[in-house]
Amino acid sequence: MVIPLAVAIVLALVLGTGGGRRAPSAAHAVPPRARRPLLRRSTPIAAEELRTDERILSYTSYVWLGTRHRRDVALTFDDGPGPFTLRILAALERFHARATFFEIGREVRAHPRITQRLARAGMVVGDHTEHHPQLALLRSERQAAEIDQAARAIRAAGAPWPALFRPPYGSFDSATLGLLRSRRMLMALWTVDTRDYASPGVRRIVYAALSGARPGAIILFHDGGGDRSQTLAALPRVLERLRQRRYRLVTLPELLQDDPPPGGQPPPRSLAGD
After folding, report:
1. pLDDT per residue as tens digits for the range 118-128
2. How far apart are CA 30 and CA 82, in angstroms?
3. Of 53, 72, 78, 258, which is the active-site residue?
4. Does the annotation count 78 as an active-site position?
5. Residue 73 in contact with residue 219, Cβ under 8 Å?
6. 3-state SS record for the chain
């Protein structure tokens, strides 16, 4: 009979296509649930994401240079926020560059909107203590207060809780390292010191930055703590020439993803001679 035959054909089509629902194509298939990447390069990387990077914290307490696998350079700025910070940010944005700012808690409390602006622009904000002391000269409890007060100020201003810490003057001791370890914070030193804080002249700042640049380098500038007009004038020249040399200008978490510090580093030594 014609009708039963037609019904049989319809049933066969329905069963063969999973109850009438179109089978997902390869392009639209839902992948199995996967572990979220530690640091996703397709989106801005927040400093707090470094907190989960147990690989790095499990074998070292600090970073001063990457492993040179990629042409990444991390520009870092200390002692802000201050009157020059947003102008330095504007220079970075003109060159589509990202950087890491190590901020002093009391300055963050005075200029919270600047810290918020940095975070919204995709920059990373790290802890640089509350009052900028030489930590190696302080007792452990005072060091803890300096670290924690600055971290709270940064978070209150709207940036992620910092997972990176830079000791003022490069001064630290075993107590500092123990405090950072318990807070799951990585100490960030530097490869190149431009000494811009001394206002040596624009040409000398440019030369120091470029002569020390190499894959994995961490370059130290200052956006706060004084007159940073020379730094501001030098920065576009540095950015342009680093771009010409085909360097990627990245935040420290991005550098650590691409070029983590090598294993077997010796214990860090205080740069302040403490």
Report:
1. 999 999 999 99
2. 48
3. 78
4. yes
5. yes
6. CHHHHHHHHHHHHHHHCCCCCCCCCCCCCCCCCCCCCCCCCCCCCCHHHHHHCHHHHHHCCEECECCCCCCEEEEEEEEECCCCHHHHHHHHHHCCCCCEEEECHHHHHHCHHHHHHHHHCCCEEEECCCCCCCHHHCCHHHHHHHHHHHHHHHHHCCCCCCCEECCHHHCCCHHHHHHHHHCCCEEECCCEECCHHHCCCHHHHHHHHHHHCCCCEEEEEECCCCCCHHHHHHHHHHHHHHHHCCCEEECHHHHHHHCCCCCCCCCCCCCCCC
Question: What distance in Å separates the CA atoms of residue 155 and residue 204, rounded to the nearest whole number?
Answer: 35
Rounded CA-CA distance 139/238 in Å is 39
pLDDT at 172 over 90: yes
Place of tokens 């000269």: 137
Active-site annotation holder among 111, 128, 132, 222: 222
Domains detected in the chain: 56-258 (3.20.20.370)
pLDDT single digits (tens) 19-61: 333 333 333 333 333 333 333 333 444 444 554 466 788 888 9
d(CA 251, CA 100): 5
- Told to judge if 127 belongs to the known catalytic residues of this protein, a careful annotator would answer no
Query: Is the per-residue pLDDT at 94 higher than 80?
Result: yes
Whole-prediction pTM value?
Answer: 0.81
More confident residue, 1 or 196: 196
Query: Could you tell me the two tokens for 257?
Result: 């993803």
